[in-house]
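Weekly modeling sync, notes
Attendees: S.R. (lead), two postdocs, one rotation student

Agenda item 3: backlog of single-chain predictions. S.R. asked that every request posted to the team notebook include the full sequence so nobody has to chase files. The rotation student volunteered to paste the first one in as an example of the format we agreed on. Action items at the bottom.

Example entry:
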Amino acid sequence: MKDIGKIITLLKKESKNWKRPFLSAWAEINRNPFTTLISCILSLRTKDAVTANASLRLLKKYNTPEKILRLSENQIEKLIYPAGFYKTKARRIREICRVLIKEYSGKVPKNFDELMKLKGVGRKTANIVMVYGFKQPEYLPIDTHCNRIPNRLGWIKTKTPEETENALSNILPKKYWYDFNDLFVQFGQNLCLPVSPFCSKCPIRKYCRRVGVKVSR
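Predicted structure, as returned to the notebook:
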């Protein structure tokens, strides 16, 4: 795995040219553990641009559990639509806000296991909140891109995000953990697509084994 550092450096340099819908949204939202948590809930099974707009509409003004609970479920639905499963997410967001106020004094718990107790919060969301909400770099969020790309590169051979998290934690130097999720999500959305990736434009092609790639551009 001697090329990991070279790959990360090249991707970070290239990432300056990639589209990042969330940048414009976060510029207008006070990014903290709570807004990170809610935006992550909104992002599940939803395209990045849709998530960015939904997060902006909701969190620019309603950026605390107390403020969100002043909204009805229907009002939240209208603010986050057309995010995937917006009705379920609106109900879940209100429920999380109630729990945060009742059990955590209105604060997002700075503890991975406590985060996992919140309904609708899985390992990926908990990891993202710890890394990007609390700035704790010792956690490794794994989504579909972070699962697919290391396997495609030939770094690991895993099937599930949980397996990938464990495998990467053993080979990826910790100095890269903080940037890993954000960087590989961008890479997966812009070049290393699930189907027919842009291998001809890829800055790290010479380091990639292209495992499972049958068609590329």
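Discussion: group reviewed the output briefly. Residues 21-133 form a domain with the Endonuclease III; domain 1 fold (CATH 1.10.340.30).
Action items: rotation student to repeat for the remaining queue; S.R. to check formatting next week.
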